[in-house]
Design goal:
The structure holds two protein chains of two kinds. Helices cover 70% and strands 3% of the residues of chain A. Chain A has 24 helices and three strands. Chain A has a three-stranded antiparallel β-sheet, with helices on one face. In chain A, a hairpin with a 2-residue loop joins strand 1 and strand 2. The two termini of chain A are 45 Å apart. Chain B is of the alpha/beta class. In chain B, 28% of the residues lie in helices and 29% in strands. In chain B, a hairpin with a 5-residue loop joins strand 1 and strand 2. The chains are: A mainly alpha, B alpha/beta.
Chain lengths: 522, 290
């Protein structure tokens, strides 16, 4: 073995151990296994995992393999990025990166190690998901387990997503302005855009080059379904089926000759992102990593924010006027105002949302954008103290230690209500249910941001969870009343309002319990 | 062994971290002394090839390390300031990781280093549960794993309790002959017993590089002691460069640095702390008449 190989192996091994020894990884792993149990319902209940052309697919290795591989691919593509995109950052924070930089290891070796570390983590994770799905076949299957068929479906669908996510994570971490919140949001839309383009191309049969960018595997799946089963009507996910229709046998996806090169290509091209990452990589030079952490001054958002500072300072000074005494209310208000101080662009967004609401003929049409902006603004309200190491100072302030959850909930609620003040005012005239849905929707965002921030300590959790949810809601356009959580499309019912109010309460109780438990442990 | 020629580091915005520093160092323990913000860390990072100088050159065994950093990196051991660890790895795994990155593949060497820093008994424990001192000893172990010729340790005793500081000092003093150890600190006692030479930095510039004895000689006749009443002490404490003050029944016994004796002050033998204070405050005002 040469030195390069040994160094890369050492990085992969260390990253692997670090990730798999984290309790959170174990929890997610167990949850995913539990999810497989829910995901593969017993057909006797009237629900099935896979339906093709309205017919239930019999639970065999091919059907379960293909269906669970597609679900796993979505997990990898969407959530995997947020789980693995801290490998380089960790070395900056611990300053182990400085030691790495002082060795004769080449930057390309380091980045290759991080990339392969990401790949091995996601492969193992998906492997675990596959095994739990195989167990579900043993539990609920209608045919014997054929491991090779099962593995084949996973290999046909998931490797491009794993390679793509791993490479993009390394690239984003190497580019200063993409290594933070902006990168997190941008990645979500990048993934969704790639998914959308490939699916629409396959559905319309246009542009064959799009197959090389089919990292999600959905394009491949749709094409193979059209070719072999002459349908693109496929439903994956536990859903009710028509018992009147006879179940069908699905023999699995196969790799036809015209797909060999595109599938291999979609695995290989993301690797080309690594030289680009090497070009931007800071090699832990403190001058450049300082700019990374202080990037707000450099990128266009940061520069725009700096321009707004004189204005925001005056507004913040005015807003601080009511804060007298040491009450929890004062602390809530100060924390909300601090968000505007740290993020002056939020003030512009706030004014923009208000003007758009008042100016538009249909004010509710602006609500999805308002909520998207709101989610970005409030995502790190709860976690910023932990990340900025100011938590010990906060804990010695009166009442804040025990009431952290209420304090942060109050702060996010103040921000959320301020952001949505104009839509709320307009909703008053639209009727009680509309107002109620919007109000509960606002509280739902504040409560989940607070709860996920407190429980996980990471702003990414809320961003990813909310963006995914938001994406589904916006694409549903009110077709499912239960998804119209804030009355975007006017289809929210009393049940909807009660459901999200209940989720909000449960989220806050869970956060409170988690916080109290953590305090007791410390 | 190490030659630094007119090295400067200018940051964006025009501030200098290090300005026009020239040094020539041979083997031994070099104490790099200076107040916070003096440029010690930036200088050490430039020597360690982590950041490049804006101007000037650094030679290690006649090789320009700015142009050919790997020549030095193969023979370098570096312990950065505020060194963190990967909490979930054991001490053995952590050290093996850095050993692999530095091209050391002998497990025996890893175990030997753990033993030398007295961590062999906790080799299989996760380092997240280690005390600050244990983490620092693990840090020095990773710096020494490749048997380096140049060892750079940046503020290694910051945050350690007195016992751990002494233990860490002993580890450093045992590193061995024929090596160059550069140890930066702002605490004089960290280096007074082990440094063969002391480089003093202030505001990015090198004030002096000398043997401790030379520094002490330079401060001779400039260190005084006297006894002040509490009122006098309160009045003078902002103007005098006081290196120590002890309250006793007859008043406050102070030791201060200045060029002229005044009042009832008597000259005393300088210590390294006094010499450092003298270098940092050459324009120190004299003691007011009692």
């Amino acid at each position: 073995m040469n030195d390069s190989f040994r160094r890369i192996t050492a990085i992969v091994r260390a990253d692997f151990l670090l990730r798999f020894r984290r309790p959170s990884t174990l929890i997610v792993f167990l949850l995913l296994s539990a999810f497989a149990y829910v995901w593969v319902p017993d057909p006797a209940t009237g629900r099935a995992l896979l339906q093709i052309n309205g017919q239930r697919a019999i639970y065999n290795s091919a059907a379960l393999g293909m269906a669970t591989a597609s679900v796993g691919m979505i997990f990898v593509g969407l959530f995997g990025f947020y789980v693995i995109s801290n490998a380089i950052r960790r070395d900056v924070v611990t300053r182990c990166g400085l030691v790495v930089a002082s060795t004769s290891m080449r930057s390309t070796e380091y980045l290759a190690g991080k990339f392969l570390g990401n790949v091995s983590f996601l492969f193992t994770f998906l492997g675990g998901f596959m095994l739990s799905s195989m167990v579900m076949l043993l539990v609920r299957g209608e045919a014997r387990l054929e491991p090779l068929v099962f593995i084949q479906q996973y290999l046909l669908l998931t490797p491009p997503a794993i390679v793509f996510v791993s490479a993009v994570a390394v690239l984003f971490e190497s580019i200063p302005w993409l290594s933070g919140k902006l990168g997190d949001v941008l990645y979500f839309f990048l993934w969704m855009a790639m998914l959308g383009i490939v699916i629409s191309q396959e559905a319309t049969g246009s542009l064959s080059w799009g197959r090389y960018f089919d990292v999600s595997g959905f394009g491949f799946m749709i094409d193979r379904m059209q070719t072999t089963l002459h349908t693109e009507s496929i439903a994956i996910g536990a859903s009710s089926f028509d018992p009147a229709k006879a179940p069908m046998v699905f023999n699995g996806l196969t790799l036809s000759p015209e797909w060999i090169v595109p599938r291999i290509g979609s695995i290989l091209w993301p690797i080309a992102l690594l030289p680009l990452a090497a070009f931007f990589f800071h090699r832990f030079d403190p001058v450049r990593t300082k700019q990374t952490s202080d990037k707000a001054r450099r990128n266009w958002i940061g520069r725009f924010q700096m321009l707004l500072k004189p204005l925001s300072r005056r507004i913040v000074r005015l807003l601080m006027w009511p804060t007298r005494g040491h009450s929890l209310g004062s602390a809530i208000w100060i924390d909300a105002v601090l968000t505007l101080t740290l993020f002056p662009l939020a003030l512009v967004a706030l004014v923009g949302c208000a003007i758009a609401t008042v100016a538009l003929e249909q004010p509710q049409s602006v609500l999805p954008v308002v909520f998207l902006t709101l989610a970005i603004v409030v995502s790190d309200v709860v976690t910023r103290d932990r990340r900025g190491a100011t938590l010990p100072i906060i804990y010695v302030s009166p009442r804040l230690r025990e009431n952290l959850v209420w304090w942060k909930l109050g702060s996010t609620c103040v921000l959320a209500l301020t952001f949505c003040a104009a839509p709320l005012a307009m909703a008053v005239s639209a009727g009680g249910l509309r107002f109620g849905a919007l109000f509960v929707g606002i509280i739902f965002v504040a409560a989940t941001a607070t709860a996920l921030g407190v429980i996980t300590g990471n702003p990414k959790t809320f961003i990813v969870a909310f963006l995914s949810f938001w994406y589904v809601v916006v694409n549903e356009r009110g077709a499912s009343p239960l998804l119209d959580f804030a009355g975007f499309y006017g289809t929210a019912t009393t049940q909807t309002v009660l459901l999200y109010a209940m989720i909000s309460v449960i989220a806050i109780v869970a956060a409170h319990v988690a916080h109290r438990w953590r305090l007791a442990q410390s | 062994m190490l030659k630094i020629e007119a090295v400067s580091k200018k940051f964006r915005g025009g501030n200098y971290g290090v300005r026009d520093v020239s040094l020539e160092l041979k083997s031994g323990v070099i104490g790099l002394l200076g107040p916070n913000g003096a440029g010690k860390t930036t200088l050490m990072q430039m020597i360690a090839t982590i950041t490049r100088p804006t101007s000037g050159r650094i030679f290690f065994h006649e090789v320009d390390v700015v142009k050919r950093p790997n020549e030095l990196r193969r023979r370098l051991g570096y312990l950065p300031q505020d060194f963190g660890v990967y909490d979930n790895l054991t001490a053995l795994e952590f050290l093996s990781y850095f050993a692999a990155l530095k091209g050391v593949h002998s497990k025996a060497r890893v175990l030997e280093l753990l033993e030398s820093v007295n961590l062999h008994s906790v080799a299989h424990r996760a380092v997240g549960g280690f005390s600050g001192g244990m983490k620092q000893r693990l840090g020095i172990a990773q710096a020494l794993i490749n048997d380096p010729q140049l060892v750079i340790v940046d503020e290694p005793t910051a945050g350690l309790d007195p016992e751990e500081r002494v233990r860490f000092r002993n580890v450093l003093s045992e590193i061995g002959f024929g090596k160059l150890v550069i140890l930066s600190t702002h605490i004089v006692s960290d280096i007074e017993s082990i440094a063969t030479q002391i480089a003093v930095m202030k505001e990015g510039r090198l004030v002096t590089l000398a043997a401790p004895e030379e520094l002490l000689r330079a401060a001779e006749g400039r260190v005084w002691k006297t006894v002040l009443s509490s009122e006098e002490f309160e009045r003078e404490r902002t103007t005098l460069k006081i290196s120590s003050a002890v309250r006793r029944p007859d008043g406050v016994h102070i030791r201060f640095v200045g060029s002229q004796p005044a009042g009832g002050a008597t000259a005393v033998e300088p210590e390294l702390e006094d010499a450092f204070l003298h270098l940092m405050n050459r324009d120190a005002p004299e003691i007011a008449a009692k």
